[in-house]
Design brief:
The structure holds 2 protein chains of 2 kinds. By secondary structure, chain A is mainly α. Chain A is built from 4 helices and 1 strand. The chains are: A mainly alpha, B mainly alpha.
């Protein structure tokens, strides 16, 4: 077991763990590491800095009244944040038990060994 | 009769008919392989037939005179052609994706459903449109019911929505046709025409207007794995075509579309079932296209047609990837998935391509189509649209970031990355991988930055000449700003622990009004009626019992009148009754 695996699963890099991993996925196992997940933020940060700077040199050809060098970056961040922050109050307001409508789960899939039907 | 025979000659044959016939034939074929070959070949034959028939700007054929009605069963022009082609292409994808499934009903209903959608797209009049409009509903409900026991009620609700939609369409068509002296031909209608509101409402149900949208999120996630992929293609896109044909440039649609883009974003973020998330995402994407139809300029209509093509491809791809996950893991619930890139890396890559396409990343499908709609909205606002139109533009940008949240990040993240769900399964079956691979390749191909190839191929199919260039530096830069900012917000909020965990729940939407409130109210009325009936029965019983007893006491053999009474009393009673009778006759003057 490791910090990035399911408690019932062997470590990705152990022989038992590796035996259960798809061969094509083995070079990308680093994606499951907590450090990599936390470090992912630097990818959009760097990208954002570059394209925001470029926005001043390549202004939009069809500008809206609010447009400036990195206006779409601001819109993207604010819009995304609003959506995510609205999740908790909305969940409290709208979430009910899964059996609320009393219709049962669908589709009910049957385990056929290596797949479900 | 000669009209009817004429309809079935090659030049007059609606390509949808061939697929419907294949579907009927499919129901009779017991051999799996032959049936699957038919499911694959029928849409190819349909596509070839469209190419054979579409030799000039507008082909009209298959005229059938039924009494006073003149039906035009074939009309191919630059608008219907693109819908016809993409439906045939989707049919091929679906056939490959569902190759493993040994189900006669799925094969047959999928073909009839697809054929009906194609036949409706090529319908030249409103009555023919109505017939195939209803056939899409009736044939597709079987795909939902194949989802199992729990999907039965969802299927019934689906039918109720779609039959209502058809009835409204027919009612509107009759009013509209009568006002035109019996001409039912399907062209521009506009909201001022008699019956137009009914027609638009009928189309609005099928396209998922706000408050009429719930059938999508209710039924699609409850269908079978293959069924959901098939369903995601045809019904809503057929309705979009009908709106694009009948109501281009209708201002109301701009605002309806803008609302459609935004509200699903808030539901998608809290939904646990990823197929339901994709169903909300479908609603959101349809909003962009409805908005484009409302704007109605050549750029906007090209954007709508292009987005339909791109959307069918990338949305199928996303539904297919979730279907593949369900096939192996048995669930599409975000709370039970995670870490699947270890077991299903190829599916993960295809899903990421679909997610990137819907989020409109440069070099992927949505980038070259959605931007046409947003640019046309900005142009419309800048040239006389006013403040309201700028609000619409802002809503479209907001929704673009929202798409990045639910389809661009949430679906692939919670399925293939996030916490390890502990599933070590096989990669998707070969047929699913081929279907997803084809869709992923198309997502890349139609966005390749070459005018004579790549996006140029897609643009050459659009209804109007295209001057729009998607790969300008400012467009790439500003689109990347939006997407990188959304990714940064995701990573930042996740690190801060603000991003919500996925939790099992039933999320209430507007369908609560009929699924819960409506049901409870009808149960209440039912209970009240039962109690009222019981009370009325009691009152009746006691009233009849009382008077019966009284009468019995007087007139029965043991009653007062049968008792031996003095002749004087009998004479008195007779006199009183005679006097009463005379009094009544005197008063009434008889």
């Amino acid at each position: 077991m490791s910090e990035h695996n399911h408690p019932d699963m062997p470590d990705d890099y152990s022989p038992e763990g590796l035996a259960q991993i798809h061969p094509l996925a083995k070079p990308f196992l680093f994606l499951g590491k907590e450090k990599v997940k936390r470090g992912f933020i630097w990818f959009p940060v760097v990208g954002l800095i570059i394209v925001s700077a470029m926005g001043f040199f390549f202004p939009p050809k069809h500008p809206a009244p609010w447009d400036f060098g990195f206006s779409w970056a601001v819109i993207g961040f604010v819009a995304y944040t609003i959506v995510v922050l609205s999740a908790e109050p909305l969940f409290k307001m709208l979430a009910r038990d899964e059996t609320y409508y009393g219709e049962g789960e669908a589709p009910k899939l049957v385990n056929k060994g290596d797949h479900y039907e | 009769m000669s009209d009817l025979l004429n309809m079935f000659t090659l030049g007059n044959f609606n390509p949808g008919f061939i697929i419907i016939l294949a579907g009927i034939l499919c129901a009779l074929i017991p051999t799996h392989q032959i049936r699957k070959a038919l499911v694959l070949l029928a849409p190819i034959a349909g596509g070839v037939l469209i190419a054979q028939q579409f030799t000039s700007a507008e082909i009209i054929g298959g005229i059938w005179q039924v009494g006073p009605l003149k039906l035009t069963t074939l009309r191919i022009d630059s608008l219907s052609m693109i819908w016809g082609y993409i439906f045939c292409l989707a049919g091929v994808h679906n056939a490959i994706f569902g190759f493993h499934e040994r189900c006669k009903i799925t094969d047959s209903s999928a073909l009839i459903y697809m054929g009906a959608a194609i036949a409706a797209v090529f319908a030249g009049d409103l009555i023919t449109l109505f017939v195939f409009w209803e056939l899409t509903a009736i044939s597709s409900v079987l795909l939902i019911w194949k989802g199992g026991e729990g999907s039965f009620q969802a299927g019934i609700r689906y039918l109720a929505y779609h039959v209502t939609s058809g009835v409204l369409l027919l009612a509107g068509a009759v009013i509209y046709g009568m006002s035109k002296g019996g001409d039912y031909s399907f062209g521009f209608i506009g909201l001022d025409a008699p019956g137009a509101w009914l027609i638009m409402l009928g189309m609005g149900i099928k396209v998922g207007f706000p408050f009429l949208h719930n059938w999508i999120q209710d039924s699609y996630p409850k269908a079978s794995i293959t069924g959901t992929v098939i369903l995601s293609v045809f019904t809503t896109k057929l309705a979009l075509y009908a709106l694009a044909r009948g109501f281009p440039g209708t201002e109301l649609l701009i605002y309806v579309g803008a609302v459609m883009t935004c509200f699903p974003v808030f539901f998608a973020v809290i939904e646990n079932d990823l197929r339901k998330v994709l169903a909300y995402s479908l609603n959101n994407q349809l909003g962009f296209m409805v908005c484009g139809i409302g704007i109605g300029s050549q750029l906007a209509m090209n954007g709508v047609a292009g987005q339909v093509v791109a959307h069918v491809i990338f949305k199928s791809l996303l539904f297919m990837s979730m279907g593949a996950v369900m096939h192996r893991v048995g669930t599409a619930k975000a709370s039970e998935l995670g870490g699947l890139f270890r077991s299903m890396p190829i599916t993960a890559i295809f899903c990421l391509i679909g997610a990137g396409s819907i989020a409109a990343f440069p070099l992927l499908a949505g980038f070259v189509t959605k931007s046409m709609i947003i640019t046309s909205a900005i142009d419309h606002a800048a040239y006389g649209g006013g403040t309201a139109m700028w609000v619409v533009v802002m809503m479209l940008l907001f929704a673009s970031a929202g798409v990045m949240e639910h389809s661009g990040i949430k679906v692939p993240h919670f399925t293939f990355f996030a916490h390890d769900g502990g599933h070590r399964v096989k990669e998707a079956p070969w047929n699913m991988l081929v279907a997803m691979g084809l869709a992923a390749a198309l997502c890349i191909f139609i966005a390749l930055p070459f005018k004579g190839f790549g996006y140029g191929t897609l643009y050459s199919l659009l209804p109007y000449d295209v001057e729009y260039k998607p790969y300008t530096t400012d467009h790439v830069v500003f689109q990347l700003q939006l997407l990188f900012a959304a990714m940064f917000a995701f990573a930042f909020l996740k690190r801060r622990g603000v991003y919500p965990d996925e939790r099992k729940a039933e999320i209430l939407d507007f369908d609560w009004t009929h699924r819960k409130l409506g049901t409870d109210v009808s149960h209440w009325f039912g209970a009240m009626w039962t109690r009222l009936s019981a009370n009325i029965d009691n009152v009746k019983a006691s009233a009849f019992g009382f008077s019966g007893k009284r009468l019995s006491r007087i007139f029965s053999p043991a009653g007062a009148f049968s008792a031996a009474s003095p002749s004087g009393l009998a004479a008195l009673l007779t006199s009183v009754m005679l006097a009463l009778a005379m009094l009544i006759i005197f008063i009434t003057g008889q």
